[in-house]
Amino acid sequence: MASGASSSPPLSVLSLAAVVVLLLAARGGARPPHSLRGVRPLAFDEGYAQIFGSSNLALLRDGRRVHLALDESTGAGFASQDLFLHGFFSAAIKLPADYAAGVVVAFYLSNGDVYEKTHDELDFEFLGNVRGREWRVQTNVYGNGSTHACREERYDLPFDPTDDFHHYSILWTSQRIIFYVDETPIREVVRTAAMGAAFPSKPMSLYATIWDGSTWANASASH
Ligand SMILES: *[C@@H]1O[C@H](CO)[C@@H](O)[C@H](O)[C@H]1NC(C)=O
Ligand SMILES: *[C@@H]1O[C@H](CO)[C@@H](O)[C@H](O)[C@H]1NC(C)=O
């Protein structure tokens, strides 16, 4: 299946450098830090736990880098041990360079485990593509179980996300949500009264996962 093919899994490896979680003090007009310098990334053992994928999750560099692999039987993923209400969440991510049609990599906040029908969620979702074509990234915003206020949005990355690590960040305050690719804000959602609960407002955990979404993501990934 993987072109250029090794017979052994993993087919796809996501390298995720230490996930940085910086909680912003609740202050009006909160901005993301100017740079991530001075922000201490949390090592895996300090703040995260594996949620699936057994040996498809591997820690490197004293837990400051995480490799998530996808093979024929499973993907892999981890979640923060804490729930967060607002903050600046950032991960340096390098996507798998091998054949990746149908692969879905996600870096997201969610409380779907706690609120089954009325969950909140903020996602970066990377939809794997056929070799030679670009990965697509989309952002999603769910509030109280619905995407009513803000649908998914696609963004064309101006670089090859498999070449190197890039920072993907989510700023979430009580008044706005901003998605960043490196230093560039690519989407902003400002809270309005009309949104009501459709603006995410309950504590969420932070997740990173890789999984096979071929039946789910094909239509968008391969055209
Ligand atoms: C969230 O959604 C549920 C189910 O649709 C609804 O009953 C509830 O009133 C909503 N919460 C708010 C704060 O609007
Ligand atoms: C998705 O792609 C896979 C691999 O190319 C293929 O086997 C599968 O049938 C496709 N699924 C759909 C729903 O098109």
From TrEMBL:
PROSITE patterns for this protein: GH16_2
Q: Output the InterPro entries linked to this UniProt entry.
A: Beta-glucanase-like (IPR000757), Beta-glucanase/XTH (IPR044791), ConA-like_dom_sf (IPR013320)
Q: Where is the GH16 domain?
A: 25-223
Q: Which Pfam families does this entry report, sorted A to Z? A: Glyco_hydro_16 (PF00722)
Renumbered to this chain, the signal peptide range is 1-30
Q: What highest taxon heads this organism's lineage?
A: Eukaryota
A Gene Ontology biological process in which this protein takes part is:
carbohydrate metabolic process
Q: Which UniProt keywords apply?
A: Glycosidase, Hydrolase, Signal
Q: Which SUPFAM superfamilies match?
A: Concanavalin A-like lectins/glucanases (SSF49899)
Alphabetical list of PANTHER family matching this protein? XYLOGLUCAN ENDOTRANSGLUCOSYLASE/HYDROLASE PROTEIN 8-RELATED
Protein's recorded name: GH16 domain-containing protein
Which species is listed as the source?
Answer: Panicum virgatum (Blackwell switchgrass)
Its lineage reads: Eukaryota, Viridiplantae, Streptophyta, Embryophyta, Tracheophyta
